[in-house]
Amino acid sequence: MNPEPLSLQEVLTRAKRALALNFPLAMWIRAEVTSLTERRGHRYLQFTEKGEAQQVLAKADGQLWGNDYLKVLRNRGKAAADVLAVGREICFQAELELHEVYGLKFRIVDWDPAFTLGQFEMQRRAILERLSTEGLIGLNARLPPRLVYQRLAVVTSETAAGYADFREQLAHNPYGFAYHVEHFDVAVQGPNTVPTVTAALASINARPERFDAICLLRGGGSRLDLASFDDYEIGAGLALSKVPVLVGIGHEIDETIPDHVAYMSLKTPTALAEYLIHHNAQYEARQAQLGRQIGRHAQHAIQEADATLARSASTLASQGVRQVAQGESRVAAFSTALRNAALGAFAKTDYALSATARQLEALDPNAVLRRGYTITKRGTQTLSSESAIGAGETITTIFADGRTIESLTQ
């Protein structure tokens, strides 16, 4: 025969007494927050423990009353509030309660922010070690340096603290430099940080020629707020970027994974803007200095050229005088030689002409006539032989004094 059945309330009441006997004090428990809602100042959480294969090993609900929440903040500081977020493993102190109507719950009375921060630090170190092993740390820093930064891909939230200061600093720089800023809106804390940042990096690196630098910005926040950037995918994406990455995340003392893999890390968004302005100002100053050096070198070269030209002109002038004198001497000598040669030629020609004249004079018929000879003609024909004269022809004899005698031959 079955024993008398117990009512549900009676069973839960017995279980409640058993819990009170076995768990009389609050316990410290480690678990991941998988759900968190707030109503009227109270917070309702769901905790999960997972195995190495990410399978769920245990699950439980918890509640944090508003008074207990404020008490922890007074004791631990306001930073303790940042620990309570979905996806974070926390170490909390709770009393295990079983209510006949509302079931089994943990009533949270305290939690240790140092535990969560320690978990994040261990995770960050593991990521850094992996990035180092894969040769990604320092990879982006080996990209060729940019002479100036003007075309900027700014990766941050539109409402991020420090973004407005960054833009203001660039827009009102004292040198009047112009910057082209293309904004990529991303989440800078919470679970959407990784997918939005990696998507922005992929979009930028699909057209790397359009940008001089990637500026990853986020203003101040708690260490846990900045922990969203401590992710392997973000670190690898920045390290493998084809565009130099300039990081300005957090405060002076903050350090995240991007600070280790970026081309350059600045402490704040404002410091990053100041660096961009200072870098361009240095480039402009170098160009101005080079311009002055070129001017000085050009002036020196002109002065040297002038001196060389003056020396050459002086040398040419003295050489010209000397060469003119030498030329005049050679012309005088040539003139004398030419005159002597002409006189000699004239003398020879005169002698030759005189000899020719004498020969012509000796051959002159008149000269022959003066020597006692006569000229015999038949009409206009001069006769040189008797056989040429026929009988009965009239011939004319011409004498040296010009007299003529005409006779008839027989």
Q: Encode the helix/strand succession as letters.
A: HEEEHHEEHEHEHEHHEHEHHEEEE
Helix content: 40-55%
Q: Termini, distance in Å? A: 217 Å
The main sheet orders its strands as 1-2-3-5-4
Return residue spans where pLDDT drops below 50 for at least 5 consecutive residues.
none
How many helical elements? 11
Strand content: 15-25%
**What shape does the CA trace take?**
rod-shaped
Quaternary organization? single chain
- The tally of strands reads 14
Query: From the alpha-carbon coordinates, what is the Rg to the nearest angstrom?
Result: 62 Å
Helix vs. strand class: alpha/beta
Largest sheet: 5 strands, mixed, barrel
Mean pLDDT: 85
Q: How would you concisely characterize the structure shown here?
A:
By secondary structure, this protein is an alpha/beta fold. 47% of the residues lie in helices and 23% in strands. The strands form 3 sheets. The protein has a 5-stranded mixed β-barrel. A 5-stranded parallel β-sheet has the order 7-6-8-9-10. A 4-stranded antiparallel β-sheet has the order 12-11-13-14, with no helix packed on it.
